[in-house]
Specification:
This protein is mainly beta and 111 residues long. It is built from 1 helix and 6 strands; from the N terminus they run E-E-E-E-E-E-H. Helix content is 11%, strand content 41%.
Length: 111
């Protein structure tokens, strides 16, 4: 039996530079500190500045395998990262909940 549930992540930061294929790395963090890295094409990544909430579907199989699928954001090279410490995670989500701009690079990016 497959079990699925929803979980919100937020784009915590994204790289300014791209790799040789035009992908920009994004770090996404959930309220519980779960963190993932996802590389998104530079053609679409401006839709996901830091502070953007991205819903995900978590799937758990009978065999114990687990997958995370970001519902509104697609990319490549997805990787689960070590859990983010509680205090910075809570402080970052407080900024998101207060709708405080939290993308330090937004004013530096070309239109």
């Amino acid at each position: 039996m497959l079990v699925e549930f929803e979980k919100d992540f937020v784009v915590a930061i994204r790289s300014l530079n791209t790799n040789s294929f035009g992908l920009r790395q994004h770090i996404l963090i959930a309220r519980d500190g779960e963190a993932h890295s996802l590389c998104v094409s530079c053609c679409y990544d401006q839709q996901f500045p830091a502070g953007t909430v991205v819903p995900a579907t978590i799937s758990l199989s009978e065999t114990g395998s687990r997958s995370v699928r970001f519902t509104t954001m697609s990319g490549e090279l997805q990787q689960e990262l070590p859990e983010c410490p509680p205090q910075p995670t809570q402080e970052f989500w407080e900024l998101v909940d207060a709708q405080t701009p939290c993308d330090p690079y937004s004013s530096r990016q070309a239109a």
